[in-house]
Design brief:
The protein has 14 helices and 17 strands. It is of the alpha/beta class. The strands form 3 sheets. Strands 8, 9, 10, 11, 12, 13, 14 and 15 form an 8-stranded mixed beta sheet that branches. Helix 8 links the parallel strand 8 and strand 9. The longest helix is centred in the last third of the chain and has 18 residues, at about 400-420. It starts with 7 loop residues before the first strand and ends in a 6-residue tail after the last helix.
């Protein structure tokens, strides 16, 4: 607290804390922790949501949205320019007024670099204790991120992978600060068999993946790796437990058909948007009727607005036999840490933030990859080897239970020491 007894005023700009995104979950973890200390007056300036949206009233601290409530006002401000539209969504429209009225002692902006760099040239930025806390996921480092590093005293990166590269470029002040995880929600449960019976799941070998269904999540690679494993082990019944929004991104069921994976072997989480009950079922379609609250067409796969609570997500991880996270690049990939907290063996692409999770202390099984370049940016991206996925699945399947237990305990301790909210 300040010497005069007043609370320090924190302006925190990021995704809304109730959104099911990495930034949103980090915001909820940190702001909940800081709020409970009673030391701070918190204003959460929320990206991508209307200024006075009713959901903003659900937080114990004050939350306001970055977008104008009036769609016409928003269109006028955008002037038909995509770059302006993106900046307004992240917070450029109200930021000066918010700083003027709130008068923060500390300003922390947490987003992709293009979602926060507009604040750096502002006159108030260096007059306030300001911090840019951003995700960088590929080499070479985005030029705008390098340019921003030269101007910002407090410059934090979610992964050590990118921090090391910025240090090589001479930016000695850059530090790694990982995204916060409320670790208390995730642990190994003793009643996995009971959980599986609850959802009428058989005693198969469940390979889990929790992800936003973005292009950078390597679903085809996982499908192919699973198919190779199945051919090598015809007596082993594998199922993919893919927790994602099936309405966007990869055509998951189309890919399953291409790789000769039966539809009933693709299992997912269905959530009712009305009563928030959930089921774990083979995927069929969206818009099912809820048999819990009788709501019509309210049940679908998870998305950033509708998902399961942390306690239910913990149950879902505990249904898995192994967790596999192949991706082209990422800022942190929070599900990897959540899976480790439940003491699952995790398979992780050894590139980008995946390097952080493939250190010896993290007890992961690294996945090999080959490089490709993203057109336009020329970023180096990873194409995870399907054969490596198969080989590591085989390692887990053949692994003695005692060794699995030891690796699981080590992985959990690594997450607790490096990602728990209290540590961050």
């Amino acid at each position: 607290m300040k010497k005069d007894g007043k609370k320090k005023k924190l302006l925190f700009q990021s995704d809304f804390s109730l959104m099911k995104t990495g930034f949103g979950r980090n915001a909820r973890a940190l702001l909940s922790y800081l709020h409970k200390t009673g030391k701070y007056e918190i204003l959460h300036y929320c990206c991508g949501i209307q200024h006075s949206h009713v959901k903003l009233d659900k937080t114990p601290w004050k939350s306001i949205g970055a977008l104008p409530d009036d769609e016409k006002e928003k269109k006028r401000a955008e002037k038909g320019e995509p770059a302006q539209e993106r900046a307004i969504s992240y917070g450029s429209y109200y930021i000066d007024a918010v700083v003027r009225d709130f008068k923060p002692d500390v300003y922390i902006a947490v987003q992709d670099i293009w979602g926060v760099d507009f604040a750096v040239p502002k006159k108030w930025f260096n007059k306030t204790t300001s911090c840019i806390w951003t995700t960088l996921d590929s080499l070479p480092i985005l030029p705008s991120a390098v340019k921003t590093a030269k101007k910002v005293k407090n410059y934090w990166i979610w992964s050590g992978f990118a921090t090391k590269e910025l240090l090589k470029l001479g930016h000695d002040h850059v530090q790694t600060l990982r995204g916060a995880i409320e670790c208390r929600h995730f642990k190994k449960l003793d009643d996995r068999d009971k959980l599986r019976k609850k959802f009428d799941l058989t005693d198969d070998f469940f390979i889990g993946f929790v992800f936003r269904n973005q292009v950078r999540k390597s679903v085809p690679n996982l499908m192919e790796g699973n198919s190779i494993f199945k051919r090598a082990n015809p007596g082993v019944k594998t199922k993919l437990l893919l927790i994602a929004c099936y309405r966007e991104g990869w055509g998951i069921m189309k890919l399953a058909k291409e790789y000769n994976i039966p539809a009933e072997d693709i299992v997912t989480t269905y959530v009712c948007s009305k009563c928030m009950s959930y089921e774990v079922l083979p995927y069929t379609k969206e818009g099912l009727d809820c048999d819990k609250c009788d709501a019509k067409k309210s049940v679908g796969t998870t998305n950033i607005g509708t998902g399961v609570s942390e306690s239910k997500l913990n149950e879902i991880y505990n249904l898995m036999d192994v967790y596999c996270h192949p991706f082209t690049s990422g800022g942190q990939e929070i599900p990897i840490q959540e899976a480790k907290l439940t003491e699952l063996i995790t398979l992780v692409t050894n590139y980008s933030c995946g390097e952080d999770s493939c250190v010896k202390e993290a007890a992961s099984l690294p996945l090999d990859w080959s490089e490709y370049r993203e057109q336009g940016t020329e970023f180096r991206k990873a194409s995870t080897s399907p054969q490596s996925i198969c080989d590591q699945l085989q390692n887990v399947y053949d692994m003695p239970e005692e060794q699995k237990a030891e690796m699981g305990i080590q992985a959990r301790e690594w997450v607790l020491s490096n990602f728990d909210t209290s540590v961050i």
